Amino acid sequence: MGNRSSVSQGTSYREIGEFWDKHDATEHGADNAAELELELTSQRHYVAVDRNLCSRIRSLANQRGVSEETLLNLFLKERLDQCEQEQSAISDAHSAAQGHPGQ
User: Residue 31 and residue 60: Cα distance in Å, rounded?
Assistant: First the structure.
């Protein structure tokens, strides 16, 4: 990191982090009003889900203390990762059979 942080005098991210674990910004500098404009956008995609499946998802999400959206995103990510790994293994096996290992 090389340079020192002006407030913490830390020379590494660890030192800066340790400083701010024990201090907060109200201890340093003047309180100046700031104006901030944010434009937050989120993309959502809607898909039809079977009624019985939706009920099971809702129940499991409630049991785990997460939203249905969070649970579905976790499930989809896990399954897509699994499918991509399987596809990669198939491609590797095909390449090896063709005499091109590791491609």
Answer: 46
